[in-house]
Amino acid sequence: MARPTFQAAPGTRDLFSPTTDRWRAFTEIFAEEATRAGFGQVALPMFEDVGVFTRLGEASDVVSKELYDFRDKGDRHIALRPEFTASVCRAFAENRQLIPWKAWYAGPAFRYDKPQKGRYRQFEQVGAEVIGSHDPDLDTELIALAVRFYERLGLNDVTLLLNTLGDKADRPGYLDALRTHFESNLDALSEQSRVTLETNPLRVLDSKRPPDAELIAAAPLITDHLSDDAAAAFERVTSGLDSLGIAYTLAPRLVRGLDYYTRTTFEFTSGSLDAAQNAVGGGGRYDGLVSDLGGPDEPGVGFALGIDRTLLACDAAGVFAEPDTTVDVWVVATTGGLDGLAIADELRRGGLSVDRSFDHRSMKAQMKAANRSGAPVAVIVGADEADADTVSVRPLLDDRDQVVVPRAEMLATIKELLPS
Ligand code: HAM
Question: What is the model's pTM?
Fold first, then answer.
């Protein structure tokens, strides 16, 4: 086949039905779970002043390498959102809401990442954030929201990795300890990690490079540098999860790809995805981000789940299949008049899903289309039926007989024939 003139940009994809139906179902289930947990939906712009996102941390790849930024026609420096949390905080700072403010969202995010399976330049997230409460029970509730959502999808191979990064005041002591540890073993550290060490020693823990593994395993733990308050908050989260029967793995060296986290941090990984992109979701507390963005000093906590990756994990696990999009009824009309149009409209208004052929195809061609569609019932109107104001109703998937019924009884007859 000749190469088309244009192709979707690298790292972007076209999705078609029934894949899109599955994506919609995913978001609808998430919306239902979030609504049950008292969250309201927030709809935010897909682009913001670049400054909203540079607050995520200049030392993170998301900001330093992956931002889609440009100057618009008004010479504003704009970036497509790489995630939602910063926009949620900006929106809160700008349009104060009653606290605790609980918001969920869904939509695309953009990162100039190296495209590969499970890693795209435009990808979708669903997520939830709470602004205005320090209560660690909220951390637990948010984790539970994500876990119950995975359960509804039928995705059972997800591991919850749990850590705390302590308070801002705990950080300098821990960073010093990390720096001392890595600097005294500098020769063993990969070159890239030596560079990272200069800007953010915490991020060295995130290195997946084999030479760093041994040093990372021996690195000091944040848990030895926690304030009493941060330690007690973490203890409350773990006991909350225990009380809900939610399993977790303590991951004392888990650092996330964004720099705003304080206290609880977590990641969900799927056993059926390649290690490089096995994170299907993640989140945590970000107690200084709202004030960094010019808002009041309110704490925040939340998570986001990647739809693309979660669905890959569902495929690998054989769960949450694409929904059946077969219509209930196929209308076959050969009168050349407006019968097909009217019948399809009447049946759709009666609550059925209906499709039909166009372009005045022959009876044979229309019946072929009806059979191919997988619809359990065909409604047929030829000249005889039209004259007598009747329709023929034919079951297509079994050997029940075709019946001729008055047009006024069409809907009721079909409903009786359809599997409930
Ligand atoms: P994140 O870990 O950067 O966190 O992204 C969350 C999820 O989005 C990842 O676990 C992954 O499933 C998906 N994801 C990220 N990048 C890509 C990509 N290039 N292609 C496909 N999927 C991707 C955040 O975004 C934070 N805002 C989460 C959060 C909310 N923290 C607090 N509140």
Answer: 0.94
